[in-house]
Structures are given as C-alpha cells and as structure tokens.
Amino acid sequence: EDQVTQSPEALRLQEGESSSLNCSYTVSGLRGLFWYRQDPGKGPEFLFTLYSAGEEKEKERLKATLTKKESFLHITAPKPEDSATYLCAVQASKLTFGKGITLSVRP
Amino acid sequence: EAGVTQSPTHLIKTRGQQATLRCSPISGHTSVYWYQQALGLGLQFLLWYDEGEERNRGNFPPRFSGRQFPNYSSELNVNALELEDSALYLCASSQGDDAAGIQPQHFGDGTRLSIL
User: Fold this and answer.
1) A91–B102: do the CB atoms touch at under 8 Å?
2) CA quadruple A60, A101, A51, B6: dihedral positive or negative?
C-alpha cells in the first residue's frame, strides 16, 4: 500500500529563519508528487507538481525537490503569511496524502 | 475563473440520517474526487468520477456513494450516518492527463459534516 510520511509534524520558525519540510514515500508506480498548502477552514491549495527524481520547482520563497524516496519543501526567509499546513501527496492509482506539517512563522 | 464550489458549507445531522453533499468542478475539468478529512487524520480518498463513471474507490463502506452528472457536477451521499462520519468532506477536480503528465487536483473549501 502507498505510504506518505511527513516530518516534523509541526515547525515553529522565526521570520527570516529558513528551513526544510520533509516528505518520504513508498509507492508502486509513482506518476507524480504534489505539494499543497492548507489554511484553517479552507481546502488545500495546489503549489507544485514533481514528476521525476532530480526535478526542482520554485515559487517565491518556496522550492520543492524530489529524489527517489523523498521530497523536500525548502522555505527561504519565511514570513508570517507562510504560516499554514503543508501537505505532500503521491499519485499512483490514486492520490495518497501525508498528514501534513503545520508551520508557524513568528514575526 | 471560478474554482471548485461545494455546498452546503456546514451540515448538521443525527445518527442514522442521510446526507447529500454537492460539488461543482472548475469549468473544463471532467474528473471529480471526494476526500474525507477527519481531525488528526490526513485526507482519505473516497471516490473518483470521470465522464459520469466511478473510476476508483477508497477503503470506505458502501454507505458512502455518489454520482457525477452530465455537466460534470457531483454528489456524495452518506447513508446511515455514524458519529465517526463527522469530518470535513473535500471535493477536487482535475483535467485529463496530457503529454505534460498527470494534472493536479484543485480543491474546494469543503463541507463540514457534524453528526450529533
């Protein structure tokens, strides 16, 4: 069965303090890996798709990378508005989500 | 462009009742997906509809069912409601896969179902 594990469960950063969120996975026949952001009371918002090992995508302060066993979401110089839960999901026969990482950025 | 819309926003039911949740996909998207997000758990895949047909189903009992209409909107029905069905139910839609690869799912803001 496909499995996605995200770590840490929660992360508290000072504004400007860069860090990385980890997503490790085991899946048979990976077709793509997705990162989403979810704010309280809202549905997940799509951020990135990664298709193969070595691929990288960037958007503002976020950069996502992919290896054969894990993906990282790097956050450079975060701001308080980056506070949210970040979800990783892998696509095989269906989309399987991790439990998410709750990021809090203090001003 | 309008996003995925879900109704109602909140729904309160009692045990044993039936609930109907509705979803309108992004214009041009033919696939609709349903997920359950319960407290402390990740998003759990429920159902996938494409072109009016059920394509895949998650590990949920048969009292969770749905359908997709010719205009690609969708309904999720939950019969014989139980307390543990209390959760946020999310709908997502996507285009068909193309040469660039699999397309991402885009989510609505969900229906909060509370069972008393």
Assistant:
1) yes
2) negative
Distance CA A105, CA A99 (A): 19
Closest Cα in chain B, distance from residue A64 (Å): 15
Task: Determine, for residues A87 and B43 on separate chains, whether the beta-carbon distance falls below 8 Å.
Answer: yes
- Rounded to a whole number of angstroms, the distance from the CA of B108 to the nearest CA of chain A is 5
Model confidence at A92, in pLDDT bands (50, 70, 90)? confident
What's the CA gap between B6 and B25, in Å, rounded? 9
What's the rounded Cα separation, in Å, for the pair A6 and A37? 13
> Residue A91's CB: how many other CB atoms inside 10 A?
23
- pLDDT, one tens digit per residue, over A28-82 is 888 999 999 999 999 999 999 999 999 999 999 999 999 999 999 999 999 999 9
Whether A32 sits inside 8 A of B109 (CB atoms) is no
Residue B81 pLDDT greater than 60, yes or no: yes
Question: What residue type is assigned to position B78 of the chain?
Answer: V
Contacts of A27 (CB under 8 A, 6+ apart): A2, A3, A4, A90, A92, A96
Position B61 scores a pLDDT of 97
Please report the pLDDT score of residue B99 as a whole number. 56
Question: Measured between alpha carbons, how far is residue B37 from residues B11, B42, B88 in Å?
Answer: 15, 6, 5
